[in-house]
Structures are given as structure tokens and as C-alpha cells.
Amino acid sequence: MSHPLLKPAIYSLFDERTLAAFGFTKPSTLIVSGVENSLKLRGYLQRWLVPRRRSDFFTESQLKSYPRGYQLRDIGPSWMLDKLE
User: Fold this and answer.
1) In-domain check, residue 46
2) Domain count, the chain
3) Global pTM?
4) Distance between CA 8 and CA 63 in Å, rounded?
């Protein structure tokens, strides 16, 4: 069972058009301002933290499906080979 504030907190990250498109209810102003302020506080506090020694960004990890890398001509359809050159 989820926390009762979880859905409204997530919905507060969406703009009004997105909420309407998905049929979500608009969260209260108190929840929206609370989420916005907590994200601003997190950003402010991160300035004072020690920077990471190693990035966890996913593009720096090795691809498991192509451990030795790949060339587009090897993985694409044969009828597109002339467009690569």
C-alpha cells in the first residue's frame, strides 16, 4: 500500500496540460509548493556536498548486448547499407 501523499507529490511534478491529458487530479497548492521547495532545498544542499569521484551516468558503462562495440553496418538492415556511406 502506498503512502497517501505519494500520488499527489508525483502529480505535482506535471503541468496542467499533462494532468488533464492523463486524467489525473490537480494536487493542492500546499503539496505543489512543498515538492518544489524540497527540490530547491536539495539542489542548494548538493552544492555543499563533496563531488562524486566516479560518475554513475549510464553511457559510461559497457553495453551488455554488444560487449565489443558495434558498427551500424553490422546491426542495421541490409537495404539501408547504401545510406550509411
Assistant:
1) yes
2) 1
3) 0.57
4) 36
